[in-house]
Write a structure and sequence with these properties.
Elements: H1 58-65, H2 75-88, E1 96-97, H3 98-108, H4 113-123, E2 129-130, H5 132-146, H6 154-163
Antiparallel strand pairs: 1-2
Helix pairs in contact: 1-5, 3-5, 4-5
């Protein structure tokens, strides 16, 4: 099952609703607009790649990796985030309960084993709450995994964002 595709028989998708029109993958070429989905609009220089130094906190990198200012965020990411806030929101500035929200997304994406642990460590770690940036990074990591990318991490998301 793809995170944004049809649910397999007997499963209930997080995104199953009559008005949801998702694509088979987070990075599906058919779902990307003329700007390339992650790329910048024509005439605008693509945002620079994130260059981490060892003193930079991974949580800060994850939080700022995918923002409305540095990437064309797919509309479905906004929709998913709103649904997660509705189910796992704590009422504090749009934050969601990290463990419940991440487990729901990873379960819906059929991500298990080492890949699940790796994505979990990158996005959730020891946090109790995550915000929109972390949720978007979580969705991107799951999308890369669904496409068969097994070198999952913030660098993989950044490379995809910069190349689209």
């Amino acid at each position: 099952m793809s995170l944004f595709g049809e649910s397999s028989p007997g499963t209930r998708s997080l995104f199953a609703s009559p008005d949801f029109s998702g694509s088979p993958s987070l990075f599906d070429d058919d779902a990307v607009d003329s700007t390339g989905g992650w790329g910048s609009s024509a005439g605008v220089t693509a945002s620079p790649r994130v260059h981490r130094n060892r003193s930079q906190n991974l949580g800060d990198v994850v939080r700022g990796l995918l923002t409305a200012e540095n990437a064309d965020i797919p509309a479905v990411y906004y929709d998913v985030y709103v649904k997660l806030v509705g189910e796992f929101g704590d009422g504090a500035d749009g934050m969601v309960e990290a463990h419940g929200a991440a487990a729901k997304v990873l379960d819906e994406g059929d991500v298990y084993g080492d890949e699940r642990n790796r994505i979990w460590d990158v996005v959730v770690g020891r946090k109790d709450l995550v915000g929109r940036g972390e949720v978007w990074c979580l969705l991107a990591l799951v999308g890369l995994w669904q496409e068969g990318d097994r070198d999952i991490g913030v660098d993989a998301v950044d490379v995809r964002r910069a190349s689209e």
